[in-house]
Amino acid sequence: MAVAQFRFYEELNDFIAPGRRKREFEFSCARAATVKNAIEAIGVPHTEVELILVNGVSVDFSYRVRDGDRFSVYPMFEAFDVAPLLRVRERVLRTPRFIADAHLGGLARLLRMLGLDTLYDNTFTDAEIRRRAATEGRIVLTRDRDLLKCADVTHGCYVHALKPRDQLREVVERLQLAGQSKPLSLCLHCNLPLQPIAKELVLDRLPPCVAAHQNKFRHCPGCDRVYWQGDHYRRMTELLNGLVPAAELLGSSD
Fold first, then answer.
1. What is the chain's mean pLDDT, rounded?
2. Separation in Å, CA 33 to CA 1, 28, 62, 65
């Protein structure tokens, strides 16, 4: 056995036993164990980890735990640029694209509202989620810790909040998505980009009050839905206010 010291920081403590939180503790593992094995045995999904320091040096998940090692394990940094130290990912997903599990349909809809490509189908199996995440370069969003511990899931985010609005704020702030958003540019149902469409082409489908007062429309080429800036639009912008810059919200109405 190899006996090492571990200390987890910030929200990573939510995954571990109360007696080990916010303090250094001893952990024993097989001599051949990698630090990834050890971290997940302690209870933390590897997708939640952004930086691992062993004896002050940054290492990746394949590092083999040795007797006397001291590990500091960190989640994503929000205020500091630590890019030169990062070792745990082979690649960074420059454009955030998501796939949400069956319990996060409300969150998926809200992320689409922000213009963030988010796949969701409540019939997706875990195997399908893992396959599509790997082949399409998507971040897995889930409340299932075991799903995030699967070796083929390289990018994932455990969602702590229970209500969709709280989940949206959590994910946007944690993954720093405000600058990546294009509010109200995707279909909320199909996840496809909305296209401008001339009013005369949809006039026969519009309620009389909308036809009388609205002139700008967008159309989903997938499900054929038509969008305009009515009461629902205003409710959506109120929801997004504070999550993305006001200028971006205003710009989305063009």
1. 88
2. 9, 10, 9, 6
